[in-house]
Write a structure and sequence with these properties.
451 residues; mainly alpha; 2 strands
């Protein structure tokens, strides 16, 4: 039984942490490829500004070193997820099973983000390659140490179906705000360009965003007294055994199949977004934030609709609609022409699936974790979310390799090809999610609680 009543106000405070880590994640995922690869043009002179410092040529078939480094980083990140989840599930710290991890790693996480855009700048390309690789591994490790316990709290603070949908809605909102603000990086950098130069302004912009993100991550870490709200016992199952148990749940596997495909497609799109806008639509990269803000605003306006429809229509139905909607967005991107209006067309159409798929998949994982807890008597919420992230990060890793390989020619046709691949895989994900049986899971939860 919960010691204190969980309120929506508490869930909003919890959601601030999501803003913090999503801002750091957005800075790296949205801008590292843009600044470390590509070539400048008249409209966007900062494209590839750090590219001369690291190896650019393909080293194996069409695989680039940068693409491989990013892919290995995501694989490393995926592998550490269940290890950290097992550690968190089995811990018994005075401050709880989750909060102490978040509190300890927030500052190092922010510093690692700054280092990625600052330290790989020696005169030796081999040294730069090595430093970039090490820093990326450290970045992903710190992200895992923060996010895995944080995600476990989604299920533990979501003690009812209403709270699970609400907390998923709130963290989706703060996540999308964090991602949107990360697109402001060129805009913030332009404010300081005259004083510290092009490269210096980018690094300063990253440092400012990292500082804001760090504060956001520390707020729930120090405000929420985990022991006051959650009655939890350390799990006795070891990490690897817990991971196998998690994937042995058939409905969870069915969810994960589609989730991997979805994140593969979404990562292709997000990684290429700055290129689609600058190379296909031929607009300045400073418009990226305006377009993202438009998409975010419309998406947020749809959050109450998704929140109300989910219990009535069902999360599964809405998620399938989201998959098909995203596939349409990717297809439009692959066919887009020149002009800012294309950017707004994509921003508006992407708002619908962004609202749906930003909220509901996390609620599905929380449902499965709650069902498993009631059925087995063991709370392994951390491992369920870690298993999900383990799977979708593998999809992200493959997407990084595919994108950097498909676009190695840096031609408009190559960027269009990446959007076509995203379209096809998103349709496959929609078909796979049809196997997920949401009604059975919710019925089992009700029966077990009544029992």
């Amino acid at each position: 039984m919960n010691k204190k009543q969980i309120t929506n106000g508490l869930l909003w405070i919890f959601a601030i942490g999501q803003f913090g880590w999503s801002l750091l994640s957005g800075v790296v995922s949205n801008w590292m490829v843009y600044y470390y690869t590509g070539s400048p043009d008249a409209n966007n002179p900062n494209t590839g500004i750090f590219a001369t410092g690291i190896t650019q040529e393909p080293i194996l078939f069409k695989l680039t070193l940068f693409g491989l480094v990013l892919a290995v980083g995501r694989i490393f990140d995926a592998i550490t997820d269940p290890l950290i989840a097992g550690w968190s599930d089995g811990s018994n710290f005075k401050g709880g099973r989750r909060i102490p991890f978040m509190r300890a790693v927030a500052i190092p996480f922010a510093l690692a983000t700054i280092g990625l855009f600052t330290l790989p700048q020696t005169g030796n390309i081999v040294v730069n390659d090595l430093v970039l690789f090490i820093l990326l591994m450290v970045f992903y490790l710190f992200m895992t140490i923060f996010c895995t316990p944080y995600n476990a709290l989604i299920a533990e603070l979501g003690d009812t179906q209403e709270h699970r949908i609400n907390v998923s809605t709130y963290i989706s909102f703060t996540f999308i705000v964090g991602q949107s603000i990360s697109f402001m990086l060129p805009n913030v950098a332009s404010m300081f360009e005259g004083a510290v130069g092009q490269a210096g302004s980018i690094r300063l912009a990253v440092a400012i965003m990292a500082g804001i993100a760090c504060i956001a991550m520390l707020i729930p870490s120090f405000y929420i007294n985990e022991r006051a709200y959650i009655e939890s016992k350390p799990s006795q199952t070891k990490a690897f055994s817990s991971l196998l148990k998690t994937f042995s749940v058939r409905q969870f596997r069915r969810f994960v199949y589609s989730d991997v495909i979805y994140f593969f497609a979404l990562t292709l799109f997000q990684t290429g977004l700055a290129f689609y806008e600058t190379k296909l639509m031929e607009i300045e990269d400073t418009w990226t934030f305006v377009l993202t803000a438009t998409m975010t605003f419309i998406s947020v306006c749809l959050y109450p609709v998704v929140n109300k429809l989910a219990p009535k229509v069902g999360k599964k139905t809405l998620i399938v609609i989201g998959f098909f909607s995203y596939a349409a967005v990717f297809l439009i991107t692959s066919l887009c022409g020149k002009g800012l209006h294309w950017g707004f067309i994509i921003a508006v159409t992407a708002a619908i699936p962004m609202a749906i798929l930003g909220i509901l998949p996390q609620a599905c994982v929380a449902d499965v974790a709650e069902w498993n807890r009631l059925e087995t008597g063991e709370d392994r919420s951390g491992m369920f979310f870690a298993a999900r992230t383990f799977a979708f990060k593998m999809g992200q890793a493959i997407a990084m390799v595919v994108f950097t390989s498909v676009t190695v020619a840096k031609t408009p046709a190559s960027y269009r090809a990446s959007a076509v691949i995203a379209t096809i895989t998103c349709l496959i994900g929609a078909c796979l999610f049809l196997m997920y049986n949401e009604n059975m899971i919710l019925k089992k939860i009700d029966e077990l609680k009544k029992g």
